[in-house]
Each structure stands twice: as C-alpha cells, then as structure tokens.
Amino acid sequence: MPINFQQVYTRIKEIAEGADEKKRILEERRIQARAWLDEFGSDLDYLKYKVEAAKAVDANIRCAAPFKEPLNGFYPPPANVSEVTIIAADGSQVNPDRHAAIQFCIINVGVIGMKLSSGEAPAVTIETELLYGDDLLPNGNPLSEGMVAMRRDISERIKLDEFSQDMTGPVVNLTDGTLELWGAKGDDPQAYANFVEQYLGVLSRLHSRGVVTAGYVEKPSADLVVRLLEIASADIEQMQRLREYQPLRGVSDRWLYGERENPLLPPYHRSAVFVLQSGSEKKYKGALSLHFFYLNVGTEGHPWPVRVEIPKWVADDNKKLDILHCVLIEQCKMMGSRPYPYLLHRAHETALVRHEEKGQVEQLLALELRRIRAEVGDGSHKSSAKELKVRIHR
User: Fold this and answer.
1) Could you read off the pLDDT of 61-102 as tens digits, one per residue?
2) 366 CB contacts (<8 Å, ≥6 apart)?
3) Percentage above 90 pLDDT, the chain
4) What is the pLDDT of residues 107-150, one digit of tens each?
5) What is the pLDDT of residues 196-235, one digit of tens each?
6) What is the DSSP string of 117-168?
7) Segments of the chain assigned E as strands
C-alpha cells in the first residue's frame, strides 16, 4: 500500500500556514544574535566569567567558551605550506542483523596518507575486523549499533596513530566528524569508558609527537557560539533557569558565520578558536582539552562554514593552527564546487563496505561453519517475506 498522501498533504498545508510567522520570529532572533555578538564579542573576561557562572548552575552545559581571540574576529588563510604529510581515516560498518541466518559484524577502516610536494603516490591501507560469536556480546551485552559506531571511531583513531608513528616533519591527521567520542554512553557504560580511556591514550601519543590532529564537521547544526551569546545576555534570574532560557532558539552557528548575504567569515577565513565547554571536559584535560573553530570553505556568494575540532596542543601553537588552516583549504579546493577535504573523501571511498561484499562475507562464513558442522541458523520469516516481495516486484 502507498502512503496516505491525503494525510501528508493536510499536514504540509498546516506547516506552510505557520511558516511566515516562524520566519519572522527567526529573523528577529538572528538580528538579536548579531547585536549580541557585537556587544559581547570583544569582552573575553566577561564571557569567561559568565561561562563559569553557567557551569555553577549546570556543570554539563554545552557551549563555546572564549579562548584568546574575539568572537567576531576572522583570520585569513596563511601562505601555502609544503612538505606536510596529510593522513585521513574513515570507517564503515555492517551492523549485526538479528533477522539474518548468521549474526556477524564488519568494521572496515580505510587510511590514506599523502606527502605534499613530494610527487609520491598516496599510501593506502585497509583494516577489516570481523566480529562473530562472543565478540557480539561484550560485557554480556548485545553489541548495539551505537557501540559498533563507537568501535569504528576508535579503530579510525588507532590506525591514524599507527600510520603516523615513524613520520618526520609536520603531520596532519584528519577524521570526519567530532574529535570528541560521542554517543552510545548508555548502551554499555563499561565498554564506553574503556573506549574513552583507549582514545585518550591515542591522543596522548599524538600529542607527544606533535601531530596536528583535527575532526572535520561538515554542515554543523550546533549552536555552541549562539549559546554563549545567550549566556552572556542572561541576568541573575535567567542564569538560574538556563535550560529554559533560549532567546535565540533556532539560530545556528552555521548561520551566524555563513549567512549568505552577509557572512561573518569571508571565503577561506577561519573564526576565532573557542574552548568546547561540555561535560566531557572532565575526561579531556590539559593538552587534550577540546577546542574548535569555524572555517568558510566556500566561495564568494556561496559560503560554506564547517566546524573544525582540535585539541589544545594545536590551539596553543599558531604554526600548527596555520598548517591545519592551509591544508584544509587546499584539500577542499581540490573537490571543486562541493568543497570537502579530498583525502577524507578518498578514505571514505576506501572504507565503504558495499552490499555485495557483505553478502560475500556472509556466504563465506556460512560455508566454513557448515564445513566444520557448526550450527547455522535460519533467517527470520520477516526477512524471508521481504526478500520474496523484492523478487516478485522485479
């Protein structure tokens, strides 16, 4: 049966009828956000004081905190860099399927490295992990999709660490997404804690070698800087109910820095560097504490702000910061009108597990299990019915 288009259309009409009013309210909030940015943007001591006051009310509050530069500052790309090695890692996974005849999981990580101005071909490595049996029951708990993603993320970081161990000269490590390990905390708290501890060890080793480490967040939806502006504007009473005090709701950092008609960031410029204030600061301490900046990788008339997360050892070092800034701009330019770091794109292509590859692994696993007379289950009736429907409609 098709979807009920009459119900969908009725709902679309309701959405459209309220769109004009919502647009007006959002525009007012955007104007207010720009006004507060001008009002508070240069008073870093006041902003730091307000963030500390907010933490006293809510220790887990998530927002930007000022570092060294004014909030409304912007910084041009440095001169081109050479003899820098760029390493990018990305991963993909096949999650356990309880409807399948055989329960298994695949985590595939692709790493690609390239030394600029060397004329050498990029070096590529792939690591594939097959999880089966007890591997799918860590700490006695079924491996959730969230924990598979967490395991994939930590595998990416470990491979970056291994790949860069013996390299000399400036090295830039890139991953797609946040630098902070994120999500799945409640699925298996012990496994999550173990992953974080392992990850902190990886970051410590990268720090000891001076590797420029960054997480690239494309099309970010966060309101970290906007939330800082709300906190800066709050009076004593409003500070006591910060969770409810959201006068700029709907305004995003991406709009703030990349508004099409009047972006705060000209093409290829970065914003100020911010401290990432969140509950995770209890884990990421000292040189490993998390910072970020926004970067406009778009062109004139087509801004495209992205968020770049970095550890403090990169934020503290202007040379490392400049190398990262320049590398990201040059990498994004290589992708033309759809800017994205070229090596991250290549790493994604390398790591992607295709549907036919999943089927081949499933067949090989089934054949080997049957060869040794191990038990092989049956797929669920629901799965069989879906397959039958697909064949019929072909």
Assistant:
1) 999 999 999 999 999 988 878 789 999 999 999 998 888 778
2) 101, 102, 376
3) 62
4) 999 999 998 877 788 889 999 999 998 888 887 778 888 889 98
5) 999 999 999 999 999 999 999 999 988 999 999 999 999 9
6) TS-PPPEEEEEEEEEEGGGGSGGGS---HHHHHHHHHHHHHHHHHHHTTT--
7) 63-66, 74-75, 85-94, 104-115, 123-132, 171-176, 212-217, 270-271, 274-277, 290-296, 305-311
C-alpha–C-alpha distance, residues 101 and 6, integer Å:
39
Type of residue found at 308: V
Placement of tokens 């299990």 in the chain: 369
**36 phi and psi angles, rounded to 5 deg:** -70, -35
CA distance to 76, 92, 119, 319, 326, per residue, from 331 (Å): 16, 22, 16, 18, 9
Contact status, residue 83 vs residue 170, Cβ threshold 8 Å: yes
Tell the burial category of 372 from Cβ atoms under 10 Å away from its Cβ (0-12, 13-18, 19+): exposed
Mean pLDDT, range 352-380, rounded to an integer: 81
Which of 254, 158, 246 is CA-nearest to residue 198? Answer: 158
Instruction: Calculate helix-pair angle for 342-351, 318-333, nearest 10 degrees.
Output: 70
Query: What pTM was computed for the model?
Result: 0.90
Residues 161 and 173: their CA atoms lie apart, in Å, by: 9
Q: Tell me if 151 sits within 8 A of 130, measured CB to CB.
A: no
